[in-house]
Structure formats: C-alpha cells, structure tokens
Amino acid sequence: MKKQTAGIHHITAIAGDAQENIDFYAGILGLRFVKKTINFDDPNTYHFYFGNEGGEPGTIITFFPWPGAYRGVIGNGQVGVTTYAIPEGAMDFWEDRLHRFGIDTKKTTRFGELYLQFEDVHGLKLELVERTEGKQNEWEFNGVTKDVAIKGFGGAVLYSGAPGNTQETLTDVMGLEKVAEEGEYIRFRSTGDIGNIIDLKITSSGRGMMGVGTVHHIAWRAKDDADHLDWQTYVRNKGYHVTPVQDRNYFNAIYFREYGNILFEIATDPPGFAHDESFETMGEKLMLPSQYEPYRAQLERSLPKVEVRSVMPKKEGLK
Ligand code: ZN
User: Is residue 312 part of a domain?
Assistant: First the structure.
C-alpha cells in the first residue's frame, strides 16, 4: 500500500554561538524554546529545539550549535530555504520587526504567494509566507503576539543535486502530490495543514557544504511507532539504505539519503516534548537521556550557559 507523510516533522540545522541562536529564534522570531538537550551522538554539544507553544510536529526547528566551526555553503543536497507560515495580514509586522532588529529582507513571489526572505544570525536562509492553513501559535514573547506569531513551517525549498531523483522520492516514497510547476520550481503538497508545501528547485544551486548556517536534514512525520516501522520497511523496499530505528527521546528516527543527496529522516509524532518535563516549564532545564544522566554535573559545567531573554531592536522606532 502507498504511504503518505503528513508533512515536515522538524528541520535540523547547524548554528554558531548557542546564545546567538536562542536570541534569534526565541528573542526575534518569537518561537518557544521547547527543549534544551545535548546532541545524543556528541554529548559535549547542545541540541536546541524551537517550535510553537506545544512544540508540535511541523513547527520544530532544531539546532546543533557548533561555535567556532566552519561556515557551510548552502547548495545542492540541502534544504535551501526554510519556510515559515505566518497568519494572514502579518507580513507588514514582520517586515518592520526584522528591519528594526537590523535584518535585511527581500520580497519574492512563487506560485502567486509573496515571500519575505532573510537570513538568521548564522546565515541560514529563511522566509515567511502568509497562509490561512495552520492553527494559531499561542506563544507570546518579546513583542510577538499570537495574532502575528509564526505558526510553524509553511514548508521548505529543496536544493537537489539531482532534481529528477528528488522528485521521485517526494512522490513515490513520501507520497507527496505534485501540484504545480513554475519557472525554476516544482511544488508538492502533503496532507497536513502545516509543513506541507515543498518546493523543489530544478536548477542547480551549486555545490553545498555542511557547516554553520546550513540545514543538516529534514524530517518527515510518521503517526506512531507501528507506522514508523512500516515506513522503514517501505523505504528499504523502495531501494534506499535506511538506518535502524534510533531513540531520540522525543521521537523515534530513521534516516536515509535520497538520490539528490538530501538527508531525509522519518520521525514519530509521539511522544513529543512534554513527556520529560511539564508543558509549563518546557525548555528551562537541561534535559538528558538516561544514559547521560550520570554525567549531568560534568556536562552542565562544560556546556556554555545560555538563557531565553528579551533582546532589544537595534533601530528602535524606525518604520
Ligand atoms: Zn532530526
């Protein structure tokens, strides 16, 4: 039977300085810092998660802060642009807010939609688009109120090393539907109401290189553990090399690289981010999986101190 993902579960990228990363995504973009944990494969570095008030699938961007690491190159084999959905009528608010924080923006149109594009503090390409789909994000912080808050991912723009192959993976494996083609882009849609519009750029974006300011992988949603195991078999039967199931504490994960060289993950919706700390206090404490709990004191000493804090615009009052 053909399988279909609901859409993006999360997107994971490489950041530079950890506090700068939090100041940007929590302080400026107003996302909730839903989890402070470590990279399970490299416990001396952080793994941060930002999302809507509940850290729901389709809203979560995650970062490995690698301070002092090389800047990457955005190009083929990556998510080129990460798209966030904002409520209808919120574009002017965001354009003004980003400018007041000293962030340059550019407007562009694809498939009849207006996009406000900019880079994060470490060079990651982001864009905002007004969408009616997706429920309101109730999280309010540092001047971002829920009527204008980022709802979650609108989707992503994929830069592929072999767009024909990537198209095949999106439709024949992930079950997305091709809905439109325009200029350099093909548009695909999945069944969810957030993180559901994927644009594939069919022209080359040059050679990509992983590093600070680039996306590491894009993860797609599986309903539960049983569905996840079905996905693993399904992807393997389609001829991809897929990893064993990895317990990421907040979801289970499998990974495979599609033949346009983009690293895909499939992640379970459950258990989510409120299973090891309460909804009210999510993100405040350093959370460790049980295998690293004995090293808590040592890790807390060696990891840089970070906090969610209000950040001030650089250009107060400028319109
Ligand atoms: Zn992931």
Answer: no
Point out the residues of the chain with pLDDT beneath 70. 315-319
Q: Is residue 23, in this structure, part of any structural domain at all? A: yes
User: What digits encode the pLDDT tens for the residues 180-191?
Assistant: 999 999 999 999
Report CA(182)–ligand 1 centroid distance (Å): 30
d(CA 263, ligand 1 centre) in Å: 10
Domain membership of residue 224 as a residue range:
8-302
Distance between CA atoms of residues 290 and 201, nearest Å: 41
Query: CA dihedral defined by 165, 3, 253, 56, rounded to 10 degrees?
Result: 110
The total of structural domains in the chain comes to 1
CATH number at residue 270: 3.10.180.10
Distance of CA 166 from the midpoint of ligand 1 (Å): 19
Phi/psi of residue 155, each to 5°?
160, -145
pLDDT for position 286: 97
Question: DSSP alpha helices (H): ranges in 27-152?
Answer: 91-100
pTM: 0.97
Q: What is the pLDDT of residues 220-278, one digit of tens each?
A: 999 999 999 999 999 999 999 999 999 999 999 999 999 999 999 999 999 999 899 99
As a whole number of angstroms, the distance between CA 23 and CA 138 comes to 19
CB 149 within 8 A of CB 137: yes
Residue 313 Cα to ligand 1 midpoint, Å, equals 32
Residue 309 lies in a domain: no
197: in domain: yes
